[in-house]
Design goal:
The protein is α/β, with parallel strands linked by helices and 311 residues long. It has two domains: 2-186, Aminopeptidase; 193-311, PGBD-like superfamily/PGBD (Muramoyl-pentapeptide Carboxypeptidase, domain 1). The protein is built from ten helices and twelve strands.
Length: 311
Amino acid sequence: MVIVFGAGHVLGTKSYMGYTEDTAMLDLAQRKAEYAKLYGQETSVMYVTEIASYQGIEDFIRNAKAELCSLEHSNADDSINEEPNEPNRVVVYRTVLNEGDGCCKDIGIACAEILQTILAPIQHRTNSKGEDYFGAIKRAMNGGCYDAWLIEHGFHTNSACRAKLSDPEIRQLLAEKEVDAMAKYYGWTKAEPEDDVMLYKGCPSGEPVMDWQNSLLEAGFKMINNGKEYPADGSFGTATVNGTNDFKASVGLPKDGKVDSLTYGLMLRNHRTRIDTSEKSLAEEQAKVASLIVANDALEKKIDEALAILS
């Protein structure tokens, strides 16, 4: 199945209280696209902000030969000024061309559980012509999708929701649970990694991934994707694959982007070697200092003897 995960707005970037919706939702779309690959799905990410036109969306969908389109957003409500009173709920809009909930309800339930809010009934919002109200959904269907939806991941004008959506670990969890819901609905089967593989692209995020990323950085292997350098964030994405492959190439292993016991063992040995080298360098410096001290003491003794003779 070919799936496009899209984020952003044709009218430009939207920010609120330091939270930039387009950036956060693009990251979520990328995480969903990577995770869906574990189910054997062909995916791509559409950044609507860069496309900046509804026709561009339609062309992107058509060129990708997409069958499904999931649009990632977070909602905003300006009707109430006091933020603690802001409404907060997950809203999923499905194309008006398909009746019922499809997989949207399962996706919305998973999303609402993670964001600790409620799910509104699945919406089929129309414009005055009875077509899809949202241009992105309409153009996705025009481009050849047989289903498309837009997920409002809670309200980012709600402080609690905004804090969660700003957390990359929460976004990774949203990506996994929402794609899992799609997999259950469509009957996808996840490809299991080899028994010896401990970490791999799209694997569950968390401390083991963070430890590996820190090991890469400490060993001098940067995590870069599309020219952007990434810090250790606990999510095993493309940047971590690139850093892993750079390390594996340095120790003569195939560049498959996976961390198995051999890869991990060589990293430990690399770390031990660096410690030993540092300790050796420190010992050598200490020996030099000790030698200089001895030489200095001898020089001072000679000076004292010379002064004694002169006196």
